[in-house]
Structures are given as structure tokens and as C-alpha cells.
Specification:
- The structure is a single chain.
- The chain is mainly α.
- It has two domains: about 170 residues, no CATH class; about 55 residues, no CATH class.
- Helices cover about 75% and strands about 0% of the residues.
- Helix 11 runs antiparallel to helix 12.
- The radius of gyration is 19 Å and the shape is globular.
Length: about 240
């Protein structure tokens, strides 16, 4: 993990501010990682296979979706499509942060891309909006400060889950981490009617389409939510009520 020691004092402060701001997410990322480790263990993954998967992919929701489909013996094409679809939001995250980080050197952008997860995006987007005068170096440092806590937590928790998953009692509700993680990140971002409409559509559609084979109902729900958000946003712009 890169160190901010060689950066300016402002960049160092930004790095540690990102690290501190990420601390609450440890309570969510750690159980989420444990869930992945346990599921990987139950799916027959070895420790090395599970860790290669979690470090090489570093995409929690997509990893869980892929493993679930593999255990259901879904066609490989469905597994790949679902994992890519679940992770497609990273493209939108990247586009949203491009105005802030797009001028960074290629090697830095590649590094930032690898560490792009919901937490790094959400915290960075809020920070950049609240501190519009941050320099590029400060923005990169803040982003990496978040990643410096989130990534090791995810990897360590995944390792514990795959090694000691059988020792975790069934009554321990590890599954709570997944919905809480997304609720904690999405909640503060529901700032307009379009955001709220998209969120409501995603929930309703996901419930109604829960019976679709291979969890493809989630993909359909996401598409419906995006379409709903776009329509409401267009309507708000025409009415001049974009707030």
C-alpha cells in the first residue's frame, strides 16, 4: 500500500483524513469479507484459490454473485455476465471521479482503478464535493487513505473466513453486513427525487423478480432502476425543478 510520507504536508493530512473517515466501514467490510470467505469455503475453494480470487478481483458483491452461481452450476457465460453486470457500477464511479482524478499519471490511475470499491468512491466523492479546492495530490492521497484501511480489512477478513469459517456459529448474523454496507453508502447520496425514485424501483423490482433463475432478477432490477432515475431526472430538468 503506497505511503503518503513523500507527499506534501497537505497530502499527508488528506491521506490520514481518508483513513480516519474509513474507520466506520471496518464494521461492515470485515463481516462482508468473512461472508465471502465462508461462502468460498462452502463452495469448495482452497485457501489459495479463495485468496487469489479476492485479491485479484477485489469486488465483494461480484465475487459473492459469481460463487453463488458456480455452486448452482450455472453456465459459465451467465457467471461471467452476472459478475460483470454487478461490477458495472464501477464504470459509473470512475466516470464520476474522472474530473477529479483524470489528470493523475497513468500508473496512479491504474492503482486507483484497482482500489475502486463502493467505500473508496462514496467517501472520495463526498470529500471532493465538500473540499472543492483540494489539489490533485491531495485527492489521490485521500483516496488512498481510504483504500489503505478498506483493502487490508477485506483481505484479512476473507482469509479468516476461508480458514476458520467452520468455526463461526450459525447464529452469528454475518449476512447483515451486505445490506447494511450498501444502505450506509447509498443513504447519504439520495439527494434528489431521481435518486430516490431509482432506489425505490430497485427495491421493488428486486423483490418482484427474485424468482428469476440465476439471480438475473437483480440485473433486471438494476436496469429498471437506472431507467427510472433517468426518466425522473429528465422530467425534473424539463420542469426546472432539479434539486
Amino acid at each position: 500500500m503506497p505511503s503518503p510520507s513523500s507527499e506534501t504536508p497537505n497530502a499527508r493530512r488528506a491521506f490520514w483524513r481518508g483513513y480516519r473517515n474509513a474507520l466506520p466501514f471496518v464494521l461492515i467490510v470485515a463481516p462482508f469479507g468473512l461472508v465471502f470467505g465462508v461462502v468460498a469455503l462452502e463452495a469448495g475453494f482452497t485457501v489459495s484459490q479463495a485468496m487469489a480470487f479476492t485479491i485479484g478481483t477485489y469486488a465483494g458483491a461480484a465475487q459473492l454473485a459469481a460463487i453463488q452461481l458456480l455452486t448452482e452450476q450455472a453456465p459459465l457465460a451467465i457467471v461471467i455476465f452476472t459478475a460483470l453486470a454487478v461490477n458495472a457500477r464501477m464504470a459509473m464511479y470512475s466516470a464520476a471521479l474522472a474530473p477529479h482524478l483524470g489528470q493523475a499519471p497513468l500508473w496512479q490511475r491504474a492503482m486507483l482503478g484497482y482500489f475502486m470499491v463502493d467505500q473508496t468512491y462514496a467517501l472520495s466523492a463526498i470529500e471532493y464535493e465538500n473540499r472543492p479546492r483540494m489539489s490533485l495530490g491531495e485527492k489521490v492521497a485521500y483516496y488512498m487513505g481510504v483504500a489503505a484501511l478498506v483493502w487490508p480489512t477485506w483481505v484479512a477478513a476473507s482469509l479468516v473466513g476461508v480458514i476458520a469459517g467452520n468455526l463461526i456459529p450459525d447464529w452469528v448474523p454475518l449476512g447483515f453486513a451486505v445490506p447494511i454496507a450498501f444502505t450506509a453508502m447509498i443513504g447519504p447520496m439520495l439527494r434528489t427525487m431521481a435518486h430516490v425514485a431509482a432506489a425505490l424501483m430497485s427495491v421493488v423490482a428486486a423483490l418482484l423478480l427474485s424468482g428469476v433463475p440465476y439471480s438475473l432478477g437483480l440485473i433486471l432490477a438494476a436496469l429498471l432502476a437506472m431507467g427510472t432515475g433517468a426518466l425522473v431526472e429528465s422530467w425534473m430538468v424539463k420542469r426546472g425543478t432539479w434539486t
